[in-house]
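re: ur question from earlier - yeah i can do the single chain one, its not a big deal. heres the input i used so u can compare w yours
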Amino acid sequence: MPATRTTSPTLERFHIAWDLLIIMLVVANLALLLFDSLFLLPPLNAAFEAVAPGLYGAYDQHIHANFIAIDLAFVAVFLFDVLLGWTVAIAERHYHRWFFYPFVHWYDVLGCIPLGGFRLLRILRVISLLHRLQRMGLIDVRRWRLYAVFAKYYDILMEELTDRIAIRMLDNVQGELRDSDKLSSSLMERVIQPRKQALVREISQRLETMAGDAYTHNRDDTLRYVRGLVGRTLSESPELQRLGRLPLGGQLARGLEGSLSDLACHLVDEALTGLKSAEFSALVEHLADSGFDAWLRTDPKTEQITEQVLIDMLELLKEQIAVKGWQHKYD
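and the output i got, formated as tokens:
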């Protein structure tokens, strides 16, 4: 019976006493099943009769002859334990649905089947026994070497199974990509096109943010570059060179260069500062919308390239999944 959420000392003592009773009954029932199975073997049966004829007769007459009735008595207690645990689980809402209990405690349910062919499943109650002892703090199976071995091979088994399932699924996806001629068009029509406006807004906002942040962090370098570009352009201008050869022409040329540099820097600064304006946002959104429409118009060649890229990506993913991680873990 699963532990409850109550902190009542009386109920806690009852749960401990009940668990101890079930543990003793499980041990007794398993021992009886084992002994009676050995009793049916002719060599062991004859040896038992020869060594202890009195005990042999008592066992044969009182226990072996009534084995089914005795076993049903054990089964009745185990079945009551399952029903009691199920009732407690429903009352205290241990699980999301009321019918989850027999699936979670499947080993207890199978152990209650009294048919001869199912009696060997009674060994599954060892799982319940270990669970009860672990819950009571009497044992810690995580410290057992056997548990470590079991956990190791369980991890290996689960990794191999999940890897094979994942690779099989990726193979199926690759097959669909190769065999489907309309996958790209379906992807555009059913996935991309209905979300076009949201994607366009997302793209335009990202472009605005990227451009604005880039200029904010590099404003001084940008203006310095503009001043240098204007200075180099003017110094290479024949008209400005002729003006410099006139009287007072040098001063005029330097003044003109400074004015033009200030004007160019002011224009650049105003233009880039206006990236956060509503007009620029509308322009970027219009450009993104036009570019998005052009991207949606694909031809068979570009569709094949897209599909091949997806297939190659899935192939790389399969190669990564195929790597046996447990070999490195347990080397």
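Confidence is low (pLDDT under 50) at residues 1-7. not sure if urs matches, ping me
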